[in-house]
Specification:
alpha+beta; 263 residues; 8-stranded mixed sheet
């Protein structure tokens, strides 16, 4: 991949049961989660959307990973030009490095947290030899099957805004008052709205929440419940006329859905 249009270039599901996750997300989002690549040391699985594009990956957590604190969750990958420089800058500001720099054919990556403790990956991708100008399309503000919104609950929204602006070129020029919950701070990258930062309540985990686009929010909510997941909030109408909701998959990973009401 070349330099992306937006910083979010990949999304990964960490789960305790990859086969069950494949069934669940296939029913809810129409994705195909493929078997592990032959010889994959971590049994990594790739996600393909119904349009044939890649949407991310799935890693099954080992007992050792869980003993070290890993739990089912969706985690984003953010593009950087230099892994080592980015890790050094982030840790200098109070972030932590959770995984060392790792080299794979697709590029290099490392896992860090921001200063408020939210984990994410840094990645410098290598473009495929046959497609040197390839650009990630896992984020789309409008399309079903893609991530349409990235939401960050933060213990210190002002500090988070400064951090992501400095390191990933995000801007925050618009906000929506939410009463006692504070402001919903919209997060842009150039002309693209990526999502928002909001104040975290004590019950929320320090994790990014990714909202996946669906063609019919009511059918998606019904499928989530039918397949053993839970709707934790919504679906409720959001500005613009569509609806969104937050759910938990059967293994405990949180995610959002967003899309129109069924006809």
């Amino acid at each position: 991949m070349t330099s992306p249009n937006v910083p979010f270039i990949w999304y990964e599901l960490m789960t305790t049961d990859a086969d069950a996750a494949a069934t669940f997300y296939g029913a809810v989002l129409g994705w195909t989660i493929h078997p592990p690549e032959p010889g994959s040391l971590v049994h990594y699985r790739h996600i393909t959307r119904s349009d044939g594009g890649g949407q991310g990956g799935v890693i099954e957590l080992t007992p050792e990973m869980q003993a070290e604190g890993a739990h089912p969750a969706w985690v984003p990958y953010l593009h950087v030009a230099d892994i080592d420089a980015a890790v050094a800058a982030i840790t200098a500001e109070g972030g932590r490095q959770l995984m060392p720099r790792t080299e794979i054919p697709e590029g290099s990556f490392a896992m860090v947290t921001d200063p408020q403790g939210t984990p994410f990956y840094l990645m410098k991708p290598n473009p495929p030899a046959e497609r040197p100008d390839a650009i990630s399309d896992v984020f789309s503000a409008e399309k079903s099957g893609h991530v349409r919104w990235n939401e960050l609950p933060s213990t210190d929204p002002e500090a988070s805004k400064a951090f992501y602006a400095k390191h990933f070129g995000m801007s925050f020029t618009r906000s929506m008052p939410m009463g006692e919950m504070g402001n919903y701070e919209f997060m842009d990258h150039g002309a693209v709205t990526l999502g928002a930062i909001m104040r975290k309540n004590p019950q929320q985990p320090a994790m990014w929440t990714m909202y996946f686009g669906v063609p019919d929010i009511e059918k998606a909510a019904a499928a989530i419940t039918a397949e053993g997941g839970k709707m934790l909030w919504g679906p409720h109408e959001v500005p613009g006329g569509e609806c969104s909701g937050i759910a938990m998959d059967p293994q405990g990973a949180l995610f959002g859905v967003v899309g129109p009401k069924g006809g």
